[in-house]
Design brief:
Number of domains of chain B: 3
Strand order of the largest sheet of chain B: 4-3-5-6
Strand content of chain B: 15-25%
CATH topology of the largest domain in chain B: Rossmann fold
Distance between the termini of chain A: 40 Å
Order of helices and strands of chain A: EHEHEHHEHHEHEHEHEHEHHEHEHEHEEH
Largest sheet of chain A: 6 strands, mixed
Structural class of chain B: alpha/beta
Distance between the termini of chain B: 35 Å
Helix content of chain A: 40-55%
Strand order of the largest sheet of chain A: 1-12-11-10-13-14
Number of domains of chain A: 3
CATH architecture of the largest domain in chain B: 3-Layer(aba) Sandwich
Oligomer: heterodimer
Helix content of chain B: 40-55%
Number of strands of chain A: 14
Radius of gyration of chain B: 22 Å
Largest sheet of chain B: 4 strands, parallel
CATH class of the largest domain in chain A: Alpha Beta
Shape of chain A: globular
Chain lengths: ~425, ~400
């Protein structure tokens, strides 16, 4: 198809730069990484922030972080570059701003750097190095120019990773596990069964995600193990392993029963605990559905649209069920996606990859590929194929339970389509 | 600019966008990162702007910047033409192209040859020293320079409103009240309500109107241009209060040579006054016995502040409190420009009297947003049917707000 010729196949993509728009006119486009950073900082008790940019970025950030002060004295202030600072740099102004925030009582400050200060090459790290000795507040930073960070995921993973800069070396507690990517007070994401089972075996869980406190992050290196349940926290886990020797196990990428078995066994060994077959019932349920999926989904061709957290690990699992990827929207090419891509390619799949930024223009092209099913969010419904929607529902879920819920969601989508097609025949215009 | 706790003065680029985004039958393409346009779109939806321009972005990445590559713009325009076939495409700069020096007008001149049926109209004033009010002014001026066609005056008298733009709080309701009283007083209809309720075709026909009503000072340059080209007289000002609105209508009559429908004006004045009668004793008592509670403090657009203040002082004998405007270019001795370091203590320490300002400032101090007269806003405004501040109905609305606020003190 000529409409795809400007795209690359997965094997040819090595970074975010290689992922092209499916169609060029952005309408309305996707979130800026600044948005997520603004949301995250507002949700970490004790953490202050200074968003640095032009009027657009600083004004729009107030859509997501509307109040200049938090409930516990956090400061969420803005720094707008003057015209002269765009040319000559904003180093002095930023140092002065940090001094003022320090004086106003900030405990720790995350600098969120947006497009223009990143474009003019302001040396933020050097500036912090210079001013830090004068300040009581610890300062860290994240560079989030959208021209380098296409969409919202870097706003999440780079911000969380930057919080690693506030961590301090600590003595290890062999009974303490960090859960990276789940809030302490989580009411809309089902609790993975793994976590209460760990607690039942005397393991203390510390949740590191928006909703946690600054102190929780600072004390993160105390943990014996990091469990990663969100794509946005894996880079922090990697950093903590490198800098503080805290090993990690990523659970968010695992869909197949066999992979989950392996990871749970690894956790048991690492923490010196025994599971006593406590997951057997849910494991059997997931396994039965997985075996059924291998029959029912075999040969189906799909397109992965927007609003899917990790399309590549999902594609690997769907491949194991016999499904073929035609086109994948990749919101972000995560650091670990090189490995994910290699795995998918090794299994014989090398789909087109793209970014979808204009639903009206994109749908006809997707339809021309004649998929049997879509995954993700379609702003305009496909007239020909069903869509497994609301994939963000699975964010933060892991283990056998997530696999079961995912497979059930796929089956329900297919069942509904079949039912409506049958209904169409019995009640429609066809002759009896 | 520097350190801010609150939203900074918007840029000229934002002013331009908010001026253009409401125009039907056009598309708008911003050359820059897509986040700007996404959140501008969200902000406009908050302000009840819908069904205006189609808002597109090219996005731009580090390779485009390093190589000075503008092919994204070419592809985007090709797609917009194919998808929507708009009559006009407005092209907007954003902060990154301003830094790297992209010559948008030159690119448009090159591309224009490929699209003879679509007008490509690039907007300037994207520089970092330009703030919102200048952006609004220049956008209005460029629109009236570029789009109006040579045209005869309409057989029946008509008018244009210039300056009803999405950056002003409750802009649609105010424009609707002006349209209502113009129709009632003179039987005149609007050719173009620029830009909150207009289309490319309406702007093209602006020269056919008999008078231009300029409701903010940023629109005067556009009105002068139309006066020069089409000989259309204009009136600069906003009608506030009952007598203030009648004075404004008398000026319209004087400039246009039309006769006012005195029955309509009498009826409006009578109805408005009768609605105020129940609270006038309380207001008079407030002014006489508790003058500190009858002070009127206002912050917002200079023309809005000036208009509401004149109604309060001249028609209700309220006492002037601290009043300020939100543009350094508009500050005066009467209504100076305040930075956030100047208005924040006024709002924070305000205890007695009437305070009307932005939603952001009112919310920050835990005050009711009923008293909001300016942006930044903090709430959704899904519909444009809220009561206005201008005109006869605006006068009743303002007094209603003031009496309730004085009762809460």
């Amino acid at each position: 198809m000529k409409e795809l010729m400007h795209l690359k196949r997965l094997s040819a993509v090595k970074s975010n730069i290689g992922i092209k728009f499916l169609t060029p006119a952005v309408f309305p486009g996707t979130h800026c990484p600044m948005r997520i950073a603004s949301v995250i900082v507002e949700d970490i008790v004790g953490l202050s922030s200074l968003l640095v940019g032009m009027q657009e970025c600083t004004t729009h950030s107030r859509l997501f972080s509307p109040k200049p002060e938090g409930k516990k004295g956090e400061l969420h202030w803005l720094y707008v570059l003057e015209d002269k600072e765009v040319v000559f740099g904003c180093r002095e102004g930023l140092m002065d701003a940090l001094r003022k925030m320090d004086k106003a009582g900030a405990k720790a400050i995350l600098l969120i750097i947006t497009c223009v200060p990143e474009l003019i090459g302001e040396d933020i790290e050097g500036m912090i190095h210079e001013v830090q000795p004068e300040l009581s507040a610890q300062v860290t930073y994240v560079m989030l120019g959208q021209f380098k960070n296409f969409s919202y995921p870097p706003g999440s993973w780079k911000t969380i990773q930057a919080l690693g800069g506030l961590m301090e070396k600590k003595e290890k507690n062999p009974l303490l596990v960090n859960v990276l990517g789940r809030s302490p007070e989580e009411d809309h994401i089902p609790m993975p069964s793994l976590l209460p089972e760990l607690q039942a075996r005397g393991i203390i869980l510390r949740y590191l995600a928006p909703g946690a406190s600054l102190e929780d992050f600072q004390n993160g290196p105390e943990a014996a193990l990091n469990l990663v349940v969100s794509p946005y926290t894996q880079p922090l886990a990697v950093k903590m392993e490198e800098e503080f020797g805290v090993p990690y196990i990523a659970l968010h990428t695992l869909y197949s029963v066999e992979e989950i078995d392996k990871a749970y066994a690894e956790i048991a060994v690492g923490l010196n605990i025994c599971w006593d077959n406590c997951f057997e019932a849910e494991r059997q349920e997931a396994l039965a559905l997985q075996n059924h999926a291998k029959k029912r989904l075999d040969g189906l061709r799909y397109i992965s649209s927007v609003r899917i957290d990790l399309p590549l690990p999902l594609a690997i699992y769907l491949d194991s069920l016999g499904m073929t990827a035609l086109l994948l929207h990749l919101e972000e090419y995560y650091p670990e996606d090189r490995i994910n891509a290699q795995q998918l390619i090794a299994r014989g799949q090398d789909p087109w990859v793209c970014r979808m930024v204009n639903a009206e223009a994109d749908l006809p092209i997707m339809e021309a590929l004649e998929p049997d099913i879509y995954f993700g969010y379609l702003q305009i419904a496909s007239p020909t194929a069903p869509c497994v929607a609301d994939m963000f529902d699975f964010y933060g879920q892991t283990g056998y339970g997530r696999t079961t819920r995912l497979l059930k969601r796929i089956f329900e989508t297919l069942d509904e389509t079949e039912k409506s097609r049958r209904g169409g025949i019995s009640h429609g215009s066809s002759s009896i | 600019m520097g350190l801010h706790r609150f939203k900074p003065l918007p840029s000229g680029r934002m002013g331009t966008l908010w001026t253009l985004a409401t125009i039907h039958g056009a598309a708008l393409v911003e050359f820059g990162c897509m986040g700007h346009m996404l959140y501008s779109g969200v902000t406009l939806k908050h302000a009840a702007v819908h069904d205006g321009c189609r808002l597109y972005s090219t996005h731009i990445d580090e390779t485009d910047i390093a190589l000075g590559d503008t092919t994204r713009l070419n592809h985007t325009i090709a797609n917009v033409v194919k998808q929507n076939n708009p009559k006009v495409i407005f092209l907007l700069p954003s902060s990154i192209p301003e830094v790297i020096g992209t010559d948008l007008p030159a690119l448009c001149r090159e591309l224009q040859q490929d699209y003879p049926d679509v007008r490509l109209l690039p907007f300037g004033y994207g520089g970092f020293d330009v703030i919102k009010h200048r952006g609004v002014q220049e956008a209005l001026l460029l629109l009236v320079k570029a789009l109006p066609i040579d045209i005869e005056k309409t057989p029946q008298p008509t008018f244009n409103i210039i300056g009803s733009c999405a950056d002003l709080f409750r802009f649609q309701a105010d424009a609707a009240e002006i349209v209502r009283i113009m129709e009632g007083t003179f039987g005149m209809k609007a050719v173009s309500v620029m830009t909150s309720d207009t289309s490319v075709e309406d702007i093209e026909k602006m020269g056919s109107a008999h008078i231009n009503l300029v409701i903010r000072r940023e629109g005067e340059a556009a009105a002068k241009h139309l006066e020069k080209r089409f000989g259309t007289p204009y009136l600069l000002g906003r009608p506030y209060g009952i007598e203030g609105t009648i004075n404004w209508l008398e000026k319209v009559a004087q400039i246009s040579g039309l006769t006012m429908d005195s029955a309509f004006v009498k009826e409006e004045r009578g109805v408005s006054r009768s609605r105020l009668i129940p609270v006038m004793p309380a207001l008079r008592h407030l002014v006489r016995s508790h003058p500190e509670e009858a002070t009127l403090s206002l912050g917002g657009h200079a023309d809005v502040v000036k208009g509401i203040l004149s109604f309060g002082l001249e028609e209700l004998s309220l006492i002037k409190g601290t009043c300020w405007c939100d543009s350094p270019a508009m500050g005066s001795d009467d209504i100076p420009y305040f930075t956030e370091n100047e208005w924040a203590p006024v709002v924070e320490q305000h205890q007695r009297g009437l305070l009307m300002t932005s939603g952001e400032a009112l919310e920050w101090t835990g005050r009711s947003s009923d008293m909001q007269i300016s942006n930044p806003d903090t709430k959704w405004r899904l519909h444009p049917y809220e009561p206005p501040f201008v005109g006869f109905r605006g006068a009743v609305h303002l007094v209603n707000l003031w009496i309730n606020a004085s009762n809460e003190d």
